[in-house]
# Entry
Amino acid sequence: MAGDGSRGVGTAVASDRRDPGAAERRQPSSDVGATMANLRPVQVRPAGPEGENMTQRHPRRGRIATAALLAAGILVAACGGDDDAPVATDAPVATDAPDAPVATDAPAATDAPDAPAEGLAGAEALARVEAFRQPVTELPLGTPVAIESGKKVFYVQCGVPVCQEIAVGIEAAAAAAGWTYETASHQDTPDTVASAFDAAIAAAPDVVLTSGNPREWFAPQLATLQESGIPVIAWSLPETYEPGEGIDANLLTQDDYYFYGVLMADYAAATTTTGNILFVGLPTFPVLSIVQEGFEAEIATACPTCSVSVSEVAVTDLGTNLPGQIVSALQADPELDMIVYAFGGMLFGVPDALDSAGLLDQAKAVSQAGGPLNFGFITEGRHQVAEVGIASELLGWRAIDAAARVLAGEGPGRAETPTDAVIDGRPDILAGGLPLQILEAGSIADPTALWPGVDGFQDKFTALWGL
# Structure
């Protein structure tokens, strides 16, 4: 992954557009995992002779270089790199500010959101946006399961904040089920991940839960677990819902990440009035490359008249160079009125920079998998207007639910893909049974709290379990 996954930033985007099959061919292989919380980097080489990060227009409207988004010297971020390499594992969860409280029982908003702006989007895109703006009131997977008490669950926990948020859900769900809960944390490096899995094996649990670190980091341990008949429930692998080869369920799939890109493309098309849209990507992380793939495919259909730029930045730009780059992009293009960020943490520092430059109201923004930082921007009307929400604590409960189903011999359970999320060739969209909603100012009850996903989800899970 460190060497073979490298590619010049900018060049790959252009080639993918010339060859529609290129994006599919460069999709991360099924043996490389990455979590939303623990997105593992692949190596990135500078695109141009000076190491510039190129920004390109959609070919329908020609190709331009946006001076604002030239990054001098993209640093290499290698999977499991040496001690001198930049620490990339914390960047994708910048939305979880250190002091942001984790309010696990925050009520869902009851105010109905306003009707979406129509922008330049087509009817199908508008319908999808409207469908996913609605609050989720029930668990997507409502099939009861008889949960057996007395089991032991072991969570191999990554070292970034969102994994702790998921752990809150896992521990609470395990207690409700009458299970014993054990965990081992790691530092998101090959040796510490392997050690955490060694601890899991030594604990002799009934089931192991894990965020999606690359399989090769714990391949021997995964083989041991498989030989011992111990199921593994994971999430955020760039793989299918039931990938096999030692992993029984992948609750956030490659198709889910593709759909997040689709949904953000639809929202951008429904929101822009000028038709000038910028996508800011972070292709060093496999699942974010899939988000970008979904965005690029959908925006061409949702808004064929839009002029779309794609800028790919480095992890080291987040919170440092990126805010200034966004300022310069808006200064260079007064018609740019919509910016799509590959994930919520990329907005760290951006609204403040725009405010200082007097540009806070020029462009609106949407991202995905954010947290209280993003919710604050949205409710305060500071650049960001929407977030494609992922419920981290509920994910922990669903992991226990999937484990109970696997232990009962029923498989992990599979939610039906909503009609508005059906995409040909993407059968695993929302199969994991997790809620999805476009969160806006009117649908965020408490901007300092995590999004619960479904109000009262804890009681709904215990009811499914017959407790």
Confidence is low (pLDDT under 50) at residues 1-117. The radius of gyration is 21 Å. Residues 254-271 form the longest helix (18 residues).
